[in-house]
Design a protein that fits this description.
Blueprint: H1 3-34, H2 36-42, H3 46-82, H4 85-91, H5 96-120, H6 122-137, E1 148-155, E2 160-168, E3 173-182, E4 188-200, E5 203-214, E6 220-232, H7 238-242, H8 253-262, H9 268-283, H10 287-302, H11 308-335, H12 346-361
Antiparallel strand pairs: 1-2, 2-3, 3-4, 4-5, 5-6
Length: 363
Amino acid sequence: MRLLEQYILRGFLAPWFWSTGVFVTLYVVIDLFDNLEDVLKAQVPFLILLEYYASLIPFIVVQTIPLAVLVATIYSLSYLNRNYEIVAMRAGGIPLLKILQPLLLFTFFISGAVLWINETYVPNNLLHAQSIREEYIEARVEQAGKKVLENVTIYGSNNTLFHLGQYNLAEEEFTHLTLLKQNEDQKPVSKIIAQSGNWAQDHWELKQVFVFQLGPRGQVVGPPEEYKTYALRIAETPADFAKGEARIEYMNIAALLRHLRTLRGTSPAVLRRLEAEWNYRLSLPLTSLIMVILGAPFALGYGRKASLLTGVALSFGLAVMYFSVTAVGMALGKGGFVPAWLGPWLGHILFGALGLGLLRRVR
């Protein structure tokens, strides 16, 4: 790496490190104050509280790194522009893309690190944090005021996958069950479809039931077995179904893809949700790269006029717009208003195009 590239990267790294630390700290402090009443009421031990937030750190880092990249991009490039160093570089025949190259390469490295953290640590750590929250902070309270859950999907014991059209918390009964039994390779070997069912002391009593045997490619083998009633004895209880909706958050990309393939042919709403979530996980690591492309033209176009405070405020404004568009895209994808795969990428597409268009206009 040439001295000039090292110089540009050093100017980026310092604000990136401190802004990441600031955002992680702010996240923890805000979350703590938001839950302080519950924490004090439950008398959560200090070490348990420390374990809870330590478990959240990988998730917080993944979520805040792109914002830190945006702040560091605007700050470092504005500093160089304000001191006419960018002008000197370009006067020396160095093209703009070459000036941005160290930042782009480093954000590719950051994207890989985010993908690795998100796949390796975030799902299990989030699940651990949630278990601590339920046991010590919420004392395993039920979902207050929500009597009926829609489109509940959970992984059960013994490689079993469930999808419920509706689940009534109070009555402990459900409608439109699809149950897939999988082998050790996560391939479905049998499927149970039931019109309805309810909890009967120690098992689930199903009504209007069809049992299908599946071949190696998931195809139905032979005629289905039909039952008016069917006693389903499984380890899952009403409490497991009541908590089922949140489990998708604890899956990595590979698990989500298996989940998506296994549920083909079931509820379109569930499939849209899974496809949107899977694409969001794929798009998340590239957010840092979009932040550099988006932040650079603002820093280079207004850097000599902007103060540090202006740069930080501009970073927050751009971040709010970007994450708002991403959230809207996710909602549109899950709701079926746009293709589920497209929704999570809308922010990347729109703001990436905006950043590239503005970069071409930088003089």
